[in-house]
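Revision sheet: structure tokens.
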Amino acid sequence: MDYGELGRTGIKVSRICLGTMTFGQQNSEAEAFAQLDLALDSGVNSIDAAEMYPIPPNAATAGRTEEIVGRWLASRRSRHDVVVATKITGPGAVFQHIRGGDLRHGRTQIRDAVDGSLRRLGTDFIDLYQIHWPDRKTNMFGQRGFGHDPEDNFTPVAEILEALDEQVRAGKVRAIGVSNETPWGLMTYVAEAERRDMPRVASIQNP
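Predicted:
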């Protein structure tokens, strides 16, 4: 990912981002610390996590990746040297162990997810907070031929953006981003942000 100059972080972000999705399951904490140390020593100053990590997801390990990153930040006293990104989990049958299965992207869910990530990361703010995948049904991960479901009861993008704006105004989040989003979804976020003077999407992780 190329974050470039990222919103309100005030620092130049490395063109390479360290993904952490294996920390706590496929990689031990010691191995994770070694990878984080090497990345920082090599000039990589952006770290990408998620509340659902590590992969593959399960109830026993959910949130462990953020906890490991948080312990590394504390032990190295490097919080202000890095850009920390993380993500809110979206709806999905295999993620019912996260936040009691309440995985919509409404105001309450986003607030609870942000607070949980802050606690596990041991920090007062998240540099980049991302929607991991859309609340609505869509053709992700290379799927084609999207079929509209008129019964899909999803959270409108405007409402999601309002909830994210609250977190930015509260100082808990500095910039927002999307992951696994469609061109239509990104366009809608940008249009709503411009129309209502709310935070503009600063990054995208393509499917």
